[in-house]
Design a protein that fits this description.
With 351 residues, the protein is α/β, with parallel strands linked by helices. Helix content is 41%, strand content 12%.
């Protein structure tokens, strides 16, 4: 049992107490002036709930299904890099917590445990953020498309952030870099990231794997339509935790645009700014099939290891259940657009 935190935001303070400044800044920081980083969270506060009353809510069912895989709730674990900087067990501890919660974890390409180590650690459903996954039992490939080049993060540059050993790249390239002028992470990324990645590569990737491909990093209706035309299995609406390009919109503010463009043809997942069960409810109401949680998970991992991650997931699930109860929704399918009010709704009412 984890004590000392009554909501997931309080895990951030617990993490700050145990992490070196360089690593804490790496996990918390965003691109440049961090406008979008703040807006990812603040934008949720401008969305209001519209509860219905006199509905029998004696039984609440949080379960859902993504790409044919059943989950206990629509709360997934996002891809998070370098997790052993937060805790010695790194991604293995997070995977065990996700499996125990019967939810899906996305493993980052830049994980500090190999995909095989994570796969053998527990019996859970996992998606991988890139290629070497099929033979290890991963169920989908998540292709991150918003990182042709690493975003500029002032804290990492000032701290001369050093990347840990990346075991998934063993035998493929050297991850040892020397850069005295800024972030060593930025120097590493210049070797790893491919700025030539384009829509034609989706077809190539589909030709070499039987796994469904999910695109992470879509923020516009134009790209959402292209993704559907490219034949991907799903979309993650994400701005990479506001770590790439500052002054892009908060993800919750563009979710509806993407949902309307896709028109139900493929699943849409949501990533960015989830801190409360009410945030999960709002994203589902606007049209996401599930949400991914990143920073709160890493704060829980840093503070209490596997137990901390478990508690973060439990807290969000408990808050979502309470929100559904008080809004009059007995199942995830009951959560519709009518249950929330947005700034756009308020502007329309004035016309």
């Amino acid at each position: 049992m984890v004590v000392g935190a009554v909501n997931v935001c309080e895990f951030q303070e617990l993490a700050k107490k145990v992490l070196p400044k360089m690593h804490y800044d790496f996990f918390t920081g965003g691109a440049e002036d961090e406008h979008t980083l703040r807006e990812n969270v603040e934008a949720f506060r401008r969305i209001t709930l519209r509860p219905r009353v006199l509905i029998d809510v004696s039984r609440i069912n949080l379960s859902t299904n993504i790409l044919g895989y059943n989950m206990s709730s629509p709360i997934m674990v996002a891809a998070i890099a370098f997790q052993n900087l937060a805790h010695s067990e790194g991604e293995v501890a997070t995977a065990k917590a996700a499996a125990a919660a019967n939810t899906i974890m996305v493993l980052s390409t830049t994980s500090t445990c190999t995909i095989e180590e994570v796969a053998s650690s527990c019996n859970g459903i996992r998606f991988f953020q890139l290629y070497r996954a099929e033979r290890s039992g991963y169920k989908a490939i998540v292709l991150t498309v918003e990182t042709p080049k690493l975003g500029r993060r002032w804290a990492d540059i000032k701290n001369k952030m050093v990347a840990p050993e990346l075991k998934n790249f063993d035998g493929l390239l050297s991850t040892e870099v020397v850069d005295e002028n800024g972030s060593k992470l930025e120097a590493l990324a210049s070797q790893v990231l491919d700025s030539s990645l384009n829509w034609k590569d989706i077809g190539w990737l589909k030709s070499i794997t039987k796994l469904p491909i999910i695109l992470k990093g879509v923020l516009t209706s134009e790209d959402a339509i292209k993704a559907v035309e490219a034949g991907v299995a799903g979309i993650i609406v994400s701005n990479n935790g506001a770590r790439q390009l500052d002054f892009v919109p908060a993800t919750i503010s563009v979710l509806e645009e993407v949902v309307q463009a896709v028109g139900g043809r493929i699943p849409i997942l949501f990533d960015g700014g989830i801190r409360r069960g009410t945030d999960v409810f709002k994203a589902l109401a606007i049209g996401a099939q599930a949400v991914l949680v990143g920073r709160p998970v890493i704060y829980g991992l840093a503070a209490k290891g596997q137990n901390g991650v478990t508690r973060v997931i439990e807290m969000l699930q408990d808050e979502l259940e309470l929100t559904m109860t008080l809004c009059g929704c007995c199942s995830v399918k009951d959560i519709t657009r009518n249950y929330v009010g947005t700034e756009r709704d308020r502007l329309r009412s004035l016309l």
